[in-house]
Amino acid sequence: MSESVESTPQQSYQPQWERSTRIMMTVFLIIAGVYALTLIGSVVQMLIFAFLLAFIMYSPSRFLKRRMRLPWAASVVLMYIILVMIILGVVLVILPQFVNGANRIVLEVQLAYVDLQARLEQYQPEDGMVDLLGQQVDFNFLIQPARDFILGTQNDIPDIAELNGDIPVSPEATPEPTADSTPTADTTNTTPESTTGVTSATPLPIGLLESVDFQQLLNGIFNAAGTVTGTVTSVISSVTGIFSTLLLALFISFLIMIDLPKTQDSLENWVPLGYRREYVLLISRLHRVWSGFFRGQVTIGVIIGILTWIQLTLMGVSGAPILAVFTGIISLIPTLGGFIALVPLSVVPLLQGSSVFVDMPNGLFMLLVIGINLLISQVIWSVVAPSILGDILDLPLPIIIVGVFIGAAVGGVLGAFLVAPIMSTIRIIVFYVIRKIAQQDPFPGLEPSPDFGRVLD
After folding, report:
1. Which of 37, 64, 134, 195 is the most exposed place for a label (fewest CB within 10 A)?
2. Is it the case that residue 359 has pLDDT exceeding 90?
């Protein structure tokens, strides 16, 4: 029996490449793969999004196929029709309401900022003394620098009297009369024109008009119009580019899903028979990482968003639904997402205050909102998240934090969101390679499920 295994056609195939030839071709494939990645660098984010969308659509399509006994292609088409309907509903119904709510929050924040400036202009040092638990605490060391920072630009604005030429001349600037200086009739007599209701400031507009360079003014207007036009064009092109990228990624993911059974059979045919067990176990572990990560992060984001909405509503914060949605979405970024969400959660309460705690200072109310939200997020990540994610990623927290920074620098928000499962994937592959180099079984005592990944079963 052992002899028949050793004399398989695959091992007795001739002619075989020399060891140097195999090494050279391996290096060539690595170089060609790196060069191919540089060629598709401009569309790599779109391709990543397409593969992620196909990965997300795989489980519901497979579930629909098994439950309704539909062909694989029919289940995929039905799921993508549902997805397109959801996207249209979000764009036509939910997105306008979200934009209107965000605009309303921005307007309220701007009005609150103007009111804050007016309050700071009337601020006195004794206003910085706050009574806490019967003790007077001086907060001027915090309020005064903030006041100087907010109102500092206003000190450079010239007064209206200076613009009209009505600033009184200082005594030092007024020449003292000398013995030789005698008043003349021209300086004391009043002409008839001066008594017809025209003030002494009447010549000022003429002087201003004479000093205006109309050519420079027109050039400034044209430059400003060109800047505005360029900005609008850039925004429109960016939105159009994002929309077209999403549509293309959606179409590519649809093609991937339709052709998935053939692709799966081709990959299995490429894998030698002796490596089928390791191949299936490796793919199953990678699938567990990515599916568990998506499922866990979305669940945690929804929980954080709902609890944040309840918190802000009970505390009387304006725009609670919009802030809750933003907090839930940004919490999808591992570890650092919750801290980034604290920025709008601190600005809105600071400028607008509360409709419930009306007597509480805005600064103290902001600290209360941030403290409660931090407590909620810490409870979720310490108690709820481990039961949802378990040991799926199996990465130390410092490595995840550093990876989030690297992913954000390389791939933006998408990179920060996907860096944790990517690092876990690299860890699994590196562990597999190291065990193979050491001539050890990468998955000792494990056997693959017979129907894992089979979409047609």
Report:
1. 134
2. no
The average pLDDT across 76-100 equals: 83
Residue pair 161/141 in contact by the 8 Å Cβ criterion: no
pLDDT in tens, 300-358: 889 999 999 999 999 988 888 888 888 888 888 776 777 888 888 888 888 788 888 88
- The pLDDT of residue 249 is 85
**332 near 430, Cβ under 8 Å?**
no
For every residue of the chain, which 3-state class applies, written as one string?
A: CHHHHHCCCCCCCCCCCCHHHHHHHHHHHHHHHHHHHHHCHHHHHHHHHHHHHHHHHHHHHHHHHHHHCCCHHHHHHHHHHHHHHHHHHHHHHHHHHHHHHHHHHHHHHHHHHHHHHHHHHCCCHHHHEEEECCEEEECHHHHHHHHHHHHHHHHHCCCHHHHHCCCCCCHHHCCCCCCCCCCCHHHHCCCHHHHCCCCCCCHHHHHHHHHCCHHHHHHHHHHHHHHHHHHHHHHHHHHHHHHHHHHHHHHHHHHHHHCHHHHHHHHHHHCCHHHHHHHHHHHHHHHHHHHHHHHHHHHHHHHHHHHHHHHHHHHCCCCHHHHHHHHHHHCCCCCCHHHHCHHHHHHHHHHHCCCCCCCCCHHHHHHHHHHHHHHHHHHHHHHHHHHHHCCCCCCCHHHHHHHHHHHHHHHHHHHHHHHHHHHHHHHHHHHHHHHHHCCCCCCCCCCCCCCCCCCCC
Q: What is the rounded CA–CA span in Å between residue 357 and residue 365?
A: 8
User: What is the average pLDDT score of the chain?
Assistant: 74
CB atoms within 10 A of CB 449: 10
Do 80 and 57 form a contact (C-beta atoms < 8 A)? yes
pLDDT of 163-208, one tens digit each? Answer: 444 444 444 444 555 545 444 444 444 444 444 444 444 444 444 4
| Cα–Cα distance, 191 to 318 (Å, whole number) | 63
Give the predicted TM-score (pTM) of the model.
0.60
